Amino acid sequence: MATRIALKFLRDCSVYRKIKSNNISRHSFCTGASTAATPPPPISKKVPQFSKTGRLFTGAVLSLLIGGGAYASTVDEATFCDWLFSATKLVNPFFAFLDPEIAHRLAVSAAARGWVPIEKRPDPQILGLQVWGRRFSNPIGLSAGFDKNAEAVEGLLGLGFGFVEVGSVTPVPQEGNPKPRIFRLPKEGAIINRCGFNSEGIVAVAKRLGAQHGKRKMETSSSSSSTEDENVHGGKAGPGILGVNLGKNKTSEDAAADYVQGVHTLSQYADYLVINISSPNTPGLRQLQGRKQLKDLVKKIQAARDEMQWGEEGPPPLLVKIAPDLSKQDLEDIAAVAQALRVDGLIISNTTIQRPDSVSKDPTAEETGGLSGKPLFDLSTNILKDMYNLTKGRIPLIGCGGISSGEDAYKKIRAGATLVQLYTAFAYGGPALIPQIKAELAECLERDGYKSIYEAVGADCR
Ligand SMILES: Cc1cc2nc3c(=O)[nH]c(=O)nc-3n(C[C@H](O)[C@H](O)[C@H](O)COP(=O)(O)O)c2cc1C
Questions:
Q1: Which segments of 63-149 are extended strands (E)?
Q2: C-alpha distances in angstroms, 328 versus 53, 294, 333, 390, 394?
Q3: Which of 148, 182, 339, 404 is the most exposed place for a label (fewest CB within 10 A)?
Q4: pLDDT band, very low/low/confident/very high, at 179 (cuts 50, 70, 90)
């Protein structure tokens, strides 16, 4: 790629020289008028000439670019990839200056347009795993809320996430809460949000996912024809795993009907589905976590999914995303329902409405909404451990909340997570964080003598 850029640059320079030597005026170049038909007007003396310093500066910049390009063309792909990811750190301070929602919008647009680095290096073998019959080249995922409308799935998976979860998607488009609704607490590595399910709705998201679906399926089949060893143990990522997180409309009275609509419209594109009943910003939503409500809801959604036509692979697994603000009794109820109805997985957890001591001195902590990031780590990890024990490790759990390093991801795995997700640390750290977390996690596993992720799952609960 570097070679291509350098060659294009050199070609452009030679075209410029040619134009200059043929004395093609700016006028005829722009209008396309032939130089033979109309003699070029003499170059105006008013055109400013570069000063000597200017020429020296331009020369130096050009030499640097050409020299840099030539040098880059000699380095291997892995080193070049490393440079690109490291270079993204340079834009983090710029993003930090912007309003959080504008920064987020820019980041999603950049990923949607492919203006982000692509991870070309294979994931460490030790990170590969298979869950729900799906192959993950690494267990690090991007959690819901970042790409709510599935605008940038390819770009985000290309960054090297093992999986990306889009949504929450509501059946009918809705604006969400008034802005501002996202607040940074940079000192604490945290965010408070009260977005309230701003969503373009299931139809818009289905259109986007449908357009990518064929390509993804082809990539899946070509990557599944790779060797058995590569399939089970990391290696190069295929198209990556796509989760679809479903929400409900604020004014809807029938939550189950909302989720069923989401299942009907979007499940065909999903590698897994999530029922989000834990956002603190939609009134009444968290009550769906109660024993009876959850049971009725999951039954209806499972039935809707299972009555659809499915190919050999079968329907996508159904997961439930829960809050970190649950009592022991709530957790027991959820564990009982999840086991009785054979829920395929649980995501633990969403944001918290609590304000732990570590943020209480920050005036921004008074904003209403769900807190995410570092201050959420202990709370969500404790709930994860409880749920792993309650379900006796029989249900795959996705650990989410406050992960900002490979060591954090490792702690979640030891607390019972098979897969992990993050959002806030990615919002602060950008793309460079992903290869860093993967490398650190692989190091943690090797340091403690594990040969795979499976061996470490729940190690702190035994
Ligand atoms: C701005 C923002 C928007 C979010 N939107 C959603 C959402 O739509 N659906 C959802 O299930 N979780 C949503 N989340 C929660 C995250 O998916 C995640 O569960 C939570 O932030 C904890 O992870 P973290 O500490 O790594 O950020 C959102 C989080 C943030 C910060």
A1: 129-131, 134-136, 140-142
A2: 72, 16, 9, 10, 19
A3: 339
A4: very high
DSSP structure class, residue 277: -
Gyration radius of the chain's alpha carbons: 26
3-class SS at 164?
Answer: strand
422 C-beta closer than 6 A to ligand 1: yes
Confidence at residue 283, expressed as pLDDT on a 0 to 100 scale: 87
Each residue of 54-78: pLDDT tens digit? 888 888 888 877 877 777 666 688 8
CA 120 to chain centre: 17
d(CA 368, CA 350): 15
pTM, two decimals, is: 0.85
Q: Under the phi-then-psi rule, with left for phi > 0, alpha for psi from -120 to 50, and beta for the rest, what region is 373?
A: left
Torsion angles phi and psi, residue 167, rounded to 5: 110, -170
Encoding tokens for residue 363? Answer: 């005036």
To test the pocket of ligand 1, the residue of 166, 202, 351, 408 to mutate (highest count of ligand atoms within 8 Å of its CB) is 351
Q: Which atom of ligand 1 is nearest to the CA of 425?
A: 26
**Closest by Cα among 9, 200, 5, 233 to 108:** 200
Q: Which residue in the list 143, 199, 279, 380 is annotated as catalytic?
A: 279
For 302-326, what is the mean pLDDT? 95
Report the alpha-carbon distance of residue 342 to residue 391 in Å, rounded. 11
Nearest to 154 by CA among 218, 209, 84, 88: 209
Whether residue 245 has its Cβ less than 6 Å from ligand 1: yes
Q: Topology of domain 100-461, per CATH?
A: TIM Barrel (3.20.20)
Q: Is 199 a catalytic residue?
A: no
pLDDT at 41: 57
- Distance between Cα 373 and ligand 1 center (Å): 9
For residue 211, the number of C-alpha atoms closer than 13 Å in the C-beta half-sphere is: 10
Answer yes or no: is the C-beta of 193 below 6 A from any ligand 1 atom: yes
Domain ranges of the chain: 100-461
Closest ligand 1 atom to 404 CA = 26
H runs (alpha helix) in 225-356: 228-232, 255-266, 291-306, 328-340
Tokens matching residue 134: 């799906």
Ligand 1, atom nearest to 168 Cα: 8
Pairwise CA distance, residues 48 & 427, whole Å: 45
